[in-house]
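Record type: monomer structure entry
Structure origin: computed from sequence
Chain ID: A
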Amino acid sequence: MLNLVAASAYFLLIHFGVSGTRLRDTLVLRLGEGPYRGAFALASVIGLVWMIYGYGHAPTVALWAPLPGLRPAAFALVFVAFLFVGIGLATPSPTRVGMESRLAQGTDMARGMVRVTRHPFLWGVALWSLVHLLMNGDLASVILFGSLLLLALGGTAAIDAKRRRKFGDGWTRFAQTTSSVPFAAILSGRNRIDSALSEIGIVRPLVAVLAYALIFYLHGRLFGAPLV
């Protein structure tokens, strides 16, 4: 269990202690944007692999009983998470790495899934992590999925802060037409759901649905925990 705790602490530290902070700005000035991103990506992969290894070898310490009555709701929520992740990855956004320069397009960048939330991938990961945390109910799952949940939610604020520092008014104009919390900009009248749906189209959701179906079918073989 200590190995999983150490891996999770390392993974959170490199993100909250470096990415999105002024330390990141300093490292970029000294190393350059490309080398910094390469080093950070490598450090992140190492941390993620370490976490998965620690989770797989952690003892089972039950904290609460499984919640079979919530399985249908869990499947539905994970399906929504897949939509957010899949559509988000296929939608250009200045909140994604390497796309910051698109802020020059102003509010025109708030299209498709970005009208729903400017952090669709992170909100999808957060929802996925929360469901797995609640449905497993053991200490190792709380550490692993709780860490990923914390990272996803904290990452939305860290990315916003980083973009705000670097792009100032350009970021402010973009952020005023979007929201971090899903559907908040639409509910407040700053954006429109009909525009979002028409721009998302059918291909992106279809790919997300197929990915969900594939993982659902292979879950037992890949992770040792059949869903049905």
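Annotation 1: The chain is about 70% helix and 0% strand.
Annotation 2: The chain has two domains: 1-59, 60-223.
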